[in-house]
Amino acid sequence: MEKDKRELLERQGYRIVGEHSAVKLCHWLKSEIAGGPGCYKETFYGIRSHRCLQMTPTADACNLNCLFCWRAQDWGTDSLIHADDPGRIIEDSIKAQRVLISGFKGNPRVSKEMFAESSSPNQVAISLTGEPTLYRRLGELIEDFHERGMTTFLVTNGTNPKTLEKLDPLPRQLYVSMVAPTEEIYRKLAFPKSGNEWRHLRETLELLPSLDTRRVIRHTLVAKWNLGFAEDYAKLDATADPDFIECKAYMFVGRSRERLLMENMPSHAAIREFSAQLADATGYGVAGEREDSRVALLTRDGALHPL
Fold first, then answer.
1. CA 40 → CA 5, 9, 143, distances in Å?
2. Which of 128, 193, 234, 255 has minimal CB crowding within 10 Å?
3. What distance in Å separates the CA atoms of residue 130 and residue 65, rounded to the nearest whole number?
4. DSSP per-residue codes, 214-275
5. What is the predicted pLDDT for the residue at 194?
6. Which whole-number Å values give the CA distances from 66 to 139, 165, 281, in the listed order?
7. Hey, where are the domains in the chain?
8. What is the pTM of this model?
9. Which CATH number does 3-299 carry?
10. What is the pLDDT of residue 8?
11. pLDDT tens across 263-281, in order?
12. Between vectors from CA 18 to CA 88 and to CA 9, what angle results, nearest 5°?
């Protein structure tokens, strides 16, 4: 990674790991370690936010330029030639996390037990920024996390179906972001860097039912762009046949504020209304919601299924 890119990310609170990976503390980790609530993934799936490592093996690599993304998009690559050793990435990511949380040790609201647990994460969210399937040793990375007794959540934009088809082992939970109901909206909102991404995403949706892991479709919803269209989303969701569907509001944060407006961030009431419409269209049931994150969860039986 070039020096100016590294310095920019570090000013934004990231810790760069090796040549292409990064770690950043989640808001909800900082909340829970100090006695506050955890994130909606804790409510929906049972993981503990203060023990979650939020990292990416592709801090500067993505093949989309989504308008709602919080990262800078005037630099970066759509491929990743170099591939650091997975074990080294994990070791250095955990070390970076410990550095980032070190300031909490003297906080009177943080117990010794919570601090110790946060220093030894047992869950990893492979997401944060970039597109992780561009890292060609992703399977080895996931396997190493599993060998350390950590659960794995992998978030992908779904544009590399061949990588997902060959991925071994699979993560404990696989998220595919489906950010548009039609190809036309996808091209305007996700700004793919070639003409193939929508087709590849559709191939991933067709692949998903065959993957032996917990599968999540995530709809990131932007008011006046892709919010609504419940029937169109339902057809795509039917192809994917996921275990879970997340309906999540776009949040007006980071560099996305240079591309979108505050009014593009849906209210939780709008998310609740859309979730009900999507539930009717898919036959799924609304299993839970978190107003502070403007998100709702749909499952086949309308019940939560924690890990």
1. 31, 25, 26
2. 255
3. 10
4. EEEEEEEE-TTTTS--HHHHHHHHHHH--SEEEEEE----GGGGGTS-GGGS--HHHHHHHH
5. 87
6. 26, 24, 26
7. 3-299
8. 0.96
9. 3.20.20.70
10. 83
11. 999 999 999 999 999 999 9
12. 135
